[in-house]
Amino acid sequence: MRLRILDNGHGFGTKALFALIRTASRQPVLDVIKLVKYRSDFYGGPMSAVTQEAMRGPSAWSVGDRELMAAFVARSNNCEFCTKAHTAVAQGAYGDGQKVSAVLSDLESASIEEPLRATLLMLGKLTREHTVDADDIRAVLAAGASRQQIEDALAVCFSFNVISRLADAFGFLVPAPEAFEAGAKYLLARGYR
Amino acid sequence: MSDIRQARKALATRILEGAGKASPSERRAAFNNSDLAEPVGSLADKVARHACKVTDGDITAAKVLGRSEDQVFEIVVCSAIGQATRQYDTALAALETATGKE
Asked: What does the alpha-carbon distance between residue A56 and residue B59 come to, in Å, rounded to a whole number?
């Protein structure tokens, strides 16, 4: 990473935890974990509370839907690390890799529910253009998404508009697919806390 | 998802008002993407508008004049959260307009 403190600045207990993760998963510690664990009272702790609520809190959207939104927002930010990481989580959550690949390659033609398609379109615009207007929201409501579903999707978008930026600004290493698979299993079993 | 607003508020309060290595005014300026002196001003703006274009050189430049890695870390975090907050707030206002809950 571009800041040495994010690779090597952790305390003894956290470094021991990283050693345990490497041993148990047989994979390198993902840079996102190193970031969250560095001075976690400043960023990682409060941000994890936001992300846990957005991704695993009560919602009409499934975990798979929200992970797909995360991957889509990351892709809209051109963030390779987060796109690959959350593609793996969404595929695991859905048990359907084809669905995730179809959405990320061509949202318009993918075989998904209309409320989800319209929501992803809106999130993509918000991420790329930094704004949406009432007509953009009305299109999502007309497709069948509820007001609460839109609020929940915006919370997911917030989290991944933060995390994608940090991944790219700090220069996260993009590891082999096996490392993302291990990370996906962890996030599906334990969430973001 | 009743706790998300409280959690977001706690996050913003922590990074802007809690203890840090960068000054509160610098963290606030990075969050707002305004009035931040160079070269960190350019870095914060790049993080906010197109983070995928940040380079090693941008981070190196931000560390001149004795600025520590911890200070750069905080400035980048504040910039990312500030921009995501503006996006979120804009969309939430549009939602309220669309549903007549202004």
From this structure: 34
